[in-house]
Amino acid sequence: MARSFLMRSAVKFIVLFIIPASLYAQEDTSSAPKKFTLNGYLKDMQIMSFGSNVNGTINDNIIHNRLNFRWYPMEKTTVGVEMRNRVFMGETIKSIPGYSHLLDFDPGLVDMSFLIIDEPGLIFLSQIDRAWINWNNDKWDIRIGRQRLNWGMNLFWNSNDLFNAYSLVDFDYEERPGVDALRVQRFFNNMKSLELAIKPGKNADEWVGGILYRFNKWQYDFQVLAGWWFTDTAFGAGWAGNIGNAGFKGEVTYFSQRNTSNNVLSLSISTDYVFRNQLFLTIGFLLNSGTADTNFSNPENLFMTSVTAKNLMPTKYSGIISVNYPFTPLLIGGFTAVYSPEVRTAFFMPQLGYSIAKNWELALFGQSYWLDMGKFNNISYSVFLRLKWSF
To answer: Could you tell me the pTM of the whole model?
Structure first.
């Protein structure tokens, strides 16, 4: 009876708040510039997991809604607030004690994560992951608040991303994490810009900040950076251009921990090529001279550790290959494989996406973890079926 009541409460939230908000977002009753806009999406994803480290088959479901609000109070000024509303149901949250507290985590200065329902088999979590004020003109762009600070240039591993690096296996979070920060950009002629960003911390060892300079030379986009990263001093550079018809991108950052000799080099490079049949191929490599303490007996742990620019993977060497191909204008397939030779573990992620209609997409994903114990064994496999409506 109680669980039925909670389910009805979650459904009422979607019906009374999300759906009317999305309908409002589609209204266009005036040609005058809007003072307020709203867009987002609503997704339902069914998950089935099995494998040698899974007892039988585990079934879960996630309802995921996103709301992106914009307010334009005056010329050159924008206020943005974005939130994620997720309902988790299924066997995983039943079998793992305290699972809701793993989800209900906010690393910012202000806790904007709200655990609305926490019951066996059902979790309802709402999180504000963007909340900022932005002012800009032709030469300046200033933003303060919770935001996405993207300093990366590479497609997968971003060694320059000091502020909010992300895990490549988290495909369902397209917007990526944000941080509470101040960002000031100054634009110059000839595609040059200077950027200052500061992420305050609750104590001195939690601050992150840096200066980034971007410029174009020899038909390449370059960037150089310097800053402090928690207890480290960081120096880095990145580039993006072409060798012939193939793209060539890379990032490198050197972390020097203050008052110690614990120095780490993070280097990520990639090349990509589009064939005549529109097949898109990307090959990448990551060197991480510092590694984390990880239980490598389970290859899933390679992707569940805290991802940072200093520790994009807890192994020293990793390689990645990704292929995407449009079978038809409406059906697109892809395949990604990651291999870490140091611990002989592999990760595979095939995917298919089909555009059902305008603003509607059906997608199928797979994630498989393998470990070499004399021969490669499939440790676990998960299948994700996702229906997405954008508004």
So the answer is: 0.85
